[in-house]
Amino acid sequence: MSYNTTKDILPHAIEITELKKSFGNNHVINGFNLTVKSQENVAVLGQSGSGKSVFIKCVIGLVKADSGSIKVFGKDILKLKQAELDQVRTKMGFLFQSNALYDSMTVRENLEFPLRRLRMNQSQKETDKQVEEALEDVGLLNTIDLMPAELSGGMKKRISIARTLINRPQIILYDEPTTGLDPITSREINELMNQVHEKYKTSSIIISHDLSCIHRTADRIILLKDGINYTEGSFDQLKTSTDPWVNAFFNT
Ligand SMILES: Nc1ncnc2c1ncn2[C@@H]1O[C@H](COP(=O)(O)OP(=O)(O)OP(=O)(O)O)[C@@H](O)[C@H]1O
Q1: Taking every annotated instance into account, which residue ranges of this chain make up the domain ABC transporter (predicted)?
Q2: In the predicted model, what is the mean pLDDT of residues 148-174?
């Protein structure tokens, strides 16, 4: 993937400035900066324990950042009142590493769930149409009446992507999208992520350890180390870096 001029003229999807988060004396995020242009896919890569999960939780509001700003389409979500925050959050979809499907609900019910919360006055016919379209997007319309326990790991990931898509987010945050999947299924999930990007023109942040996933899906990679941006670049730039730490990361 490469930059194109359209991405450069549209407003930024996400702009994070000097983000900080500590737990007691453990300064996990120490002034991290990240910009995601419209329709850009940015991966955040770092060693285990470097703070990737804390960072993404700050962005979705599961963890409260100590300071800094997180602007989503120009609005600093750390300063918004609840109603405005809820509004901005409708533009964002989050793919949990664990998939977070409800085991006691069918695939259809799992997909209806986020719709019910946001579109209370919508007709059942419209809901059915949206659920079916989201399942078609991930190639699994035939699983609509199955329970999560009846699905493979790759299918669960696809259904989770369908559930993320159902509210038509403009930004998708992917937390370790291929963890626990075999290489073939991982490749299929990466292809699906790229299809989603092409069809819905989404912007994304991808947190991953999986270099193949990052290579296939990210326009740009930021390395997180000691809570700050250690370096950034394209996959090929980082793979050929002469920095010993970056080199060890990409070529071990
Ligand atoms: N709720 C919490 N309370 C206290 N410390 C926390 C909390 N959440 C995370 N931490 C600490 O923050 C640091 C970063 O953890 P985090 O889970 O973000 O790392 P990570 O880069 O996502 O690791 P991995 O790749 O292994 O998932 C760790 O030292 C962890 O102990």
Answers
A1: 14-251
A2: 95
Nearest-CA residue for atom 20 of ligand 1: 49
Distances (CA, A) of 251 to 48, 196, 226, 238: 17, 30, 21, 10
Q: What is the pLDDT of residues 195-214, one digit of tens each?
A: 999 999 999 999 998 999 99
Nearest CA to ligand 1 atom 27: 48
Alpha helices in the chain (DSSP H): 5-9, 52-60, 82-89, 107-118, 124-137, 153-165, 183-200, 211-217, 235-239, 244-251
Residues 100-124 have a mean pLDDT of: 87
Q: Helix or strand or coil: residue 140?
A: coil
- For residues 78 and 69, the answer to whether their CB atoms sit within 8 Å is yes
Q: What is the pLDDT of residue 18?
A: 97
Ligand 1 centroid to Cα of residue 23, in Å, is 9
What type of residue sits at position 175? Answer: D
- Closest by CA position to 93, among listed 13, 151, 188: 13
**The CATH homologous superfamily of the domain defined by 1-89+210-252:** P-loop containing nucleotide triphosphate hydrolases (3.40.50.300)
22 CA to middle of ligand 1, Å? Answer: 10
CA dist 57 → 63, 97, 99, 170 (Å): 5, 12, 15, 18
- Ligand 1 pocket by Cβ (under 6 Å): 23, 26, 28, 46, 48-54
ipTM over 0.90: yes
